[in-house]
Amino acid sequence: MGVLKKVLLALGLPILLFVGWFVLSDGSENFYSPPLRTILTAFTDTWQPDRLRADVAPSLLRLFAGYLLAALIGIGLGVAIGLNRRLRAVLEPVLEFFRAIPPPVLVPVIMLFAGIGDGMKVIVIVFGCVWPILLNTVEGVRAVDGVVLDTARAYGVTGPARLTLVILPSASPQIAAGLRQALSIAIILMVISEMFAASNGLGFTIVQFQRSFAIPEMWSGIILLGLLGFALSLLFRLAERRALRWYEGLRAAQRRAG
Amino acid sequence: MTSARRGNPVLLGVAGLAGLLVILELVPRLGLVPDRYLPPTSRIAAALADEAGTAAFWRALADTLFAWALGLLIAVAAGVLAGLVIGSVPVLRALTASTVEFLRPIPSVALIPLAVLLYGTRLGSTLLLVCYAAFWQVLVQVLYGVADVDPVADETARSYRFSTWGRVRYVLWPTALPYVFTGVRLAASVALVLAITAELVIGAPGLGKEIATAQNSDAVPTMYALIVVTGALGVLINVLTRTGERHLLAWHQSVRGEVAT
Q1: How far apart are CA A57 and CA A81, in angstroms?
Q2: In whole angstroms, how large is the CA radius of gyration of chain B?
Q3: How close is the nearest chain B Cα to the Cα of A226, in Å?
Q4: Nearest partner of B153 among B121, B175, B179, judged by Cα
Q5: Could B13 and A92 be called an inter-chain contact, meaning their C-beta atoms sit closer than 8 Å?
Q6: For B18-44, what is the mean pLDDT?
Q7: For position A199, what pLDDT does the model report?
Q8: What CATH number did the domain enclosing B116 receive?
Q9: Å from B251 to nearest chain A CA?
Q10: Inter-chain contact B107–A184, Cβ cutoff 8 Å?
């Protein structure tokens, strides 16, 4: 009963919305909002395995390459800056400024340096999503409990062990928050860099459909991007829950204790 | 350690910024990077001064700020209203949870082609993207805020026979307010990013379009100057929302607590 109710609550509204869209749009004569039936047919016709391989796979590869690089750079630099008070004071305004620049305006700049190949797209993604990771890591490292650090020092936990056993775990919830913010920025930048200059990729294809007025195909691309964003954030949540299980448990215990 | 030995953080910060400017001046001058790609700071500054003398620049700035402010206003109003209603009715909350989780991660740029078809390069395109992106930031924060209401306070208000409006006004709203502000702060920066993105990609009037124009006409220093302006706008919006939050929430524990301890 409990499970059934949960499933019903979770799926009820989406199904209702979907059916509503389907029924209401069925007789649609509007060129820009074709019936959902047409869009779904276009979806299955358009996103065949060849197309997925030709357009979606390169997009995802760039996304993962950029995101991983940004995570490595962000966490690495973030730990260094977080541990050094003076370095932090020097760099903080500079970092704040770079974070405040809307990432998509970097596309034209990076196009100057890196041309319009895959390298450009990966660099754009790295440059855009490194900042939330970096700044959150700095904050997380800075907020490590002083008592814990002193205790670790008293027990002779120093050097790399101090970093991997004390500092990184303690900063990890905040690092995860930065990684989550960076994920949505990475998707946005993947699409935008492809809208500017590309010969393949999801962003390129969707704009191509729009320009050739292939409206149902365009809608199907938008839906695919939506599903992709949703799937990636779901994957991230699963990974996060796994990595931070101890933290969720700690928080729940604290909440119970009041 | 005295603060003198550690160095004044403001001074160090200024030194950091100055250092960046010097490096950016020297790198192209020494030929490490071709100055076609990265003009020295001084030339960017000169381009900025040139831009500041043109009416087109100020019109673009005003267009961007207008789209940002209007989009943010609509998103905040809709987000707060929807958040309060959904958050305070448990059935609605359970019913919408999965839909919110599904719609939120859809990248707002996916709507760009749709915006172009619906509004072309007019303000509407920018507003569509800005509102969509900023709305979720506010909604989710308001939902957290409403969930944070102290059950004892709520029960107390009920037993004193507060009207529904009274409970919203005196129990729900003060609890949710800090969350609302966090949402507004997040939404404000997201809205700026989306406003400039829409202008850059779609060509709606504003700073983003000016950047695209500068790029197309190979006016590299101007392009950098405009990018610096967008960054400065972002910093300004961050600082303003943070200061506003501190002032308006001066009574709240989250702000007071920092002072007390």
Answers
A1: 35
A2: 23
A3: 4
A4: B175
A5: yes
A6: 84
A7: 76
A8: 1.10.3720.10
A9: 23
A10: yes
Q: Which residue bears the tokens 């700049």? A: A109
**Whole-number Cα distances in Å, B139 to A121, B184, B186:** 32, 10, 11
B215-232 per-position pLDDT tens digit: 888 888 999 999 999 999
Look up the domain containing B254 and give its range: 54-260
Q: How far is CA A37 from CA A11, A12, A26, A28, B151, in A?
A: 20, 20, 7, 10, 47
Contacts of A7 in chain B (CB under 8 A): none
- Please indicate whether, in this complex, the C-beta atoms of A104 and B227 are within 8 angstroms of each other: no
Taking an 8 Å cut-off on Cβ atoms, the answer to whether B6 and A107 are in contact is no
- pLDDT tens column, A160-191: 888 888 888 888 888 998 998 899 889 888 88
For B65-106, the pLDDT digits (tens) are 999 999 999 999 999 999 988 888 888 888 888 788 778 777
Is the model's pTM score more than 0.90? no
Instruction: Classify residue B67: in a domain, yes or no.
Output: yes
- Please report the number of interchain residue pairs, chain A to chain B, with beta-carbon separation below 8 angstroms: 158
Assigned token pair, A258: 């009041």
**pLDDT attached to residue B255:** 58
Rounded Cα distance between B71 and A60, Å, is 31
Residue B2 has pLDDT above 70, yes or no: no
| Residue (of A197, A164, A182) closest to A232 by Cα position | A182
Residues of A in contact with B101 (CB under 8 A): 230
Residue B7 belongs to a domain: no
Report DSSP letters for A68-133, one per residue: HHHHHHHHHHHHHHHH-HHHHHHHHHHHHHHHHS-GGGHHHHHHHHHTTSHHHHHHHHHHHHHHHH
Tell me if B91 is assigned to some domain: yes
Q: What domain count does chain B have? A: 1
User: b/e map of A4-39 (b: 16 or more CB within 10 Å)?
Assistant: eeeeebbeebeeeeeeeeeeebeeeeeeebbbbebb
Using a CB-CB cut-off of 8 Å, the residues of chain B touching A93 are 13-14, 16-17
Buried b (16+ CB within 10 A) or exposed e, A80-112: ebbbeeebbbbbbbbbbbbbbbbbbbbbbbbbb
Query: Which residue type, as a one-letter code, is found at position A185?
Result: I
Residue B243, pLDDT > 50, answer: yes
Q: Confirm whether B27 is domain-assigned.
A: no
Average pLDDT of chain B, as a whole number = 85
- The ranges of chain A with pLDDT < 50 are none
